[in-house]
Every structure is written in structure tokens, then in C-alpha cells.
Design brief:
Layout lengths: L3 E8 L3 E2 L12 H16 L9 E4 L11 H8 L8 E4 L5 H15 L4 E9 L17 H6 L5 H12 L3 H20 L10 E2 L6 E3 L11 H5 L6 H4 L10 H8 L19 E11 H7 L5 E10 L9 H12 L8 E4 L4 H11 L12 H4 L6 H16 L3 E8 L3 E9 L1
Parallel strand pairs: 3-4, 3-5, 10-11
Antiparallel strand pairs: 1-8, 1-9, 2-8, 5-8, 6-7, 9-12, 11-12
Helix pairs in contact: 1-2, 3-14, 5-12
InterPro entries: Thiolase (IPR002155), Thiolase-like (IPR016039), Thiolase_acyl_enz_int_AS (IPR020615), Thiolase_AS (IPR020610), Thiolase_C (IPR020617), Thiolase_CS (IPR020613), Thiolase_N (IPR020616)
Keywords: Acyltransferase, Transferase
Organism: Corallococcus interemptor
């Protein structure tokens, strides 16, 4: 097993994921990923024929995002027909899993050069668009474990951890402020490229569209909890509510405190991101100057009802594999699916919050499901270079009770 190197990373700006309201809603998801592939190739100047595979995460693989979107994006990009491609789904961890699979491929010697990442057009296909719900409607599975929606899980975590509405709103406000500063100081500029209308060439979007820099503590406090009615919905065979099902597994909570709102949960957006990875042999043969190397990768399953607590233990697993401790990591990217997830992970690992999501996160910038993991990795890499730091850990919670983590190190 040899090293896997990060050659480069690019992403689209995140567009608002509401049809007709966001700048990217008129663009086919295949074209969104295709433009990202071409932006990466233009920057590197390499021959696309040398790409051993394209691996792309995408969660809602139906309709426009069905039919192996990765392969069709390769064709839409005009890349050689000999370039193979595969689409994968590990829910919110899909984009980061694509990177990790690519890193495994080049480190093992199975490939020399691979392009990885993800795409999600949530204006076309929003949450739950594949119709599978939490468990594909498998009644027998529900007899073993009844999985509740993620919003209920996030509020359950907050209740058990003593995380208050004030806590989650404070983190949301921090995310908005950090993102606003990053945008003002052009901290995302290295990775971003302008997305264009493929028919006219007109620029559709060149900056992240979702952040709300005018967000205030008062405005956040005025928002109503998003999952109260959902929690009261009767879904069990004997009329059990979703809150009741969660409490039957965690009776110590007594009553779920619903603290998450649209303001302190991740935003619905469109976007794509890709990362080029190369083997040690390929780097030497081509005289490349990689930006970083993958130091460790890990996935982990956890209890599927509470679902969102895996970032801490999966990060610990990756750290053990790298021979590191949490304090050795300079920058953390913990996906802001919900504010309580980041707060719980930070507390569990004893991380200095000043090292976490320093340029904001998915609450402010948005969470384009299958693309987010690759975006977070690129953001972490840019920030390491900007601040002359060495190591970053990217971690994400995943539906169904999973977590994923990747440690990168500058070279």
C-alpha cells in the first residue's frame, strides 16, 4: 500500500435549492457535474484519457439524477468515451466516500489517477425524492429498529446532551458570520469556478448564493421549531408517534425538546465538487506537485435511531489509524447537518471550537447532499494553505446511523 495524493479540488458555488429561486435550478444535474469535471481538467491541464475512473456521490439517484449520473456527466463533459464512471450513495457521506474510494484505488495500485466527488441538485430532487423514506418501507425491519427522521434524531441528541435552543442558535449565528467573513475575504476563491449556461455561455452563478450575512440572534430566536408536528405524527402500528418511538428507545430523555429550526439546520442547495487523486508512482512519473495526501480514512456504524452521533467515534477511529490525537488536528470540518451534531461532536472529542468550521458550514452555506463531503475537503485544503497549517479532519454524520471521516495532510 502506497500513498494517495490530492492533486487538486474544485467546486461550484452553492445555489439556492428552490426551483425558480436559485441561480442553478435551470441546469440539468449532469451538466452541473460535467462543468465541474471540465473546470478541474482545465486547471490541471492533464489529458482526460489518463483518468482511471470517475467516482461520484449522489443521494437522490432518480429521474434527472438517475441513469448513473457520473457516466452521463463524463459524456456531457466531452471527455473520451474510454473514461469509466460510477455513482454511489452513502447518504450525506457520499461525496467524501467517493474521495475515499478513489484514494483506496490509487493507494492500492489499482489506478494511478482518479477523479472523485459528488453532485446534488436539490431544486430538482429534494430530500426523500427517491421515495425510500427511512427504511424503504420494510415492515419487518421496523420490528428490529424503527428509524425516525433526522430532525427528530437531532432534537433527541440535543435533549440528551442538554443542548439548548440558545446553544444551537448561537452556533448557527457563528456559521453565518464565519461564512460571511470567508466570502468577504475571498477564502473560497481558489476552489470556486463560475457555472455557466451551456447554451449561451452566460454566467449563472459565481459566488455562494445561500448565506444570509444579515442574520441576527433575534431573527434566529423568532423561528419556530421545525419538527414539532412531525414528532407528533402517529406512524406506529398502535398509533405510536415519532417522538414516542424515539423516547421508547431513550426513556431517559423523558420529553424531546425540539430546538432545531430552518435557521440552525443545514440549507437545501444545488452544487457539485470534484477532487483529483493520484498514486505515488503517477506523481513521480508526471512530476506533479500534489497539494496534500490522504493520511487516514474511516467509516463506522452506530445506533440507527439516534442516527447522527457517529462523527465523534468515527473521527477517533481515523485518528487511531493515523497515530494521532484530536489535539493534533489543526482544522476540523464537521458537517453542520444540524447544529446539535457539531456541538455534540466537539464536546465528545474535546475539540477547541476555534478549530472547527472556521469558514462557516452547511447551516450558512448549504448542504448539497452528495457533493458536500468533497466540498468540505476542498474547503479544508484551501484553509490549510491559506493559514500555513498542516492537518485537517473532515467528518460527517450519515442517515441510518453511520459516520465517515478523512484526515488530510499537506505535503
Amino acid at each position: 500500500m502506497t500513498a494517495s495524493y490530492i492533486v487538486d479540488a474544485v467546486r461550484t458555488p452553492r445555489g439556492r435549492g428552490k426551483m425558480g429561486k436559485g441561480a442553478l435550478t435551470g441546469l440539468h444535474p449532469q451538466e452541473l457535474l460535467a462543468q465541474t469535471l471540465n473546470a478541474l481538467q482545465r486547471r490541471g491541464g492533464w489529458d482526460a484519457r489518463e483518468v482511471g475512473d470517475v467516482i461520484a456521490g449522489c443521494v437522490s439517484q432518480v429521474n434527472e439524477q438517475g441513469a448513473n449520473i457520473a457516466r452521463n456527466a463524463v459524456l456531457a463533459a466531452g471527455w473520451p468515451q474510454g473514461v469509466s464512471a460510477v455513482s454511489l450513495n452513502r447518504f450525506c457521506g457520499s461525496g467524501l466516500q467517493a474521495v475515499n474510494f478513489g484514494a483506496m484505488g490509487v493507494a492500492s495500485g489499482a489506478m494511478d489517477f482518479v477523479v472523485t466527488g459528488g453532485v446534488e441538485s436539490m431544486s430538482h430532487l429534494s430530500l426523500g425524492a427517491d421515495g425510500g423514506g427511512q427504511d424503504g418501507g420494510n415492515v419487518r425491519l421496523r420490528e428490529r429498529v424503527y428509524q425516525v427522521p433526522q430532525g427528530i434524531s437531532a432534537d433527541l441528541i440535543a435533549t440528551l446532551e442538554g443542548i439548548t435552543r440558545e446553544d444551537v442558535d448561537a452556533w448557527a449565528l457563528r456559521s453565518q458570520r464565519q461564512a460571511a467573513r470567508a466570502i468577504e475575504e475571498n477564502r473560497f476563491a481558489r476552489s470556486l469556478f463560475a457555472v455557466k449556461d451551456p447554451a449561451t455561455g452566460a454566467v449563472l452563478l459565481e459566488r455562494d448564493e445561500y448565506p444570509r450575512p444579515d442574520t441576527t440572534a433575534q431573527g434566529l430566536a423568532a423561528l419556530k421549531p421545525a419538527f414539532v408536528a412531525m414528532g407528533e405524527t402517529a406512524v406506529g402500528p398502535s398509533g405510536e408517534t415519532l417522538d414516542g418511538i424515539a423516547l421508547s428507545a431513550y426513556p431517559q430523555a423523558k420529553r424531546i425538546q425540539h430546538v432545531h429550526t430552518a435557521g440552525n439546520s443545514s440549507g437545501i442547495v444545488d452544487g457539485a465538487a470534484v477532487v483529483a487523486l493520484a498514486s505515488e508512482r503517477y506523481v513521480k512519473e508526471k512530476g506533479l506537485k500534489p497539494r496534500a495526501r490522504i493520511r487516514a480514512m474511516a467509516t463506522l456504524g452506530t445506533e440507527p435511531l439516534i442516527m447522527l452521533t457517529a462523527p465523534a467515534p468515527v473521527s477517533e477511529k481515523a485518528l487511531r489509524m493515523a497515530g494521532m490525537k484530536a489535539g493534533d488536528i489543526d482544522l476540523w470540518e464537521i458537517n453542520e447537518a444540524f447544529a446539535a451534531v457539531v456541538l455534540q461532536t466537539t464536546r465528545a472529542l474535546g475539540i477547541d471550537p476555534e478549530r472547527v468550521n472556521v469558514n462557516g458550514g452547511s447551516i450558512a452555506l448549504g448542504h448539497p447532499l452528495g457533493a458536500t463531503g468533497a466540498m468540505l475537503l476542498g474547503t479544508a485544503l484551501d484553509e490549510l494553505e491559506r493559514t500555513n497549517k498542516q492537518t485537517a479532519l473532515i467528518t460527517m454524520c450519515i442517515g441510518g446511523g453511520q459516520g465517515i471521516a478523512t484526515i488530510i495532510e499537506r505535503v
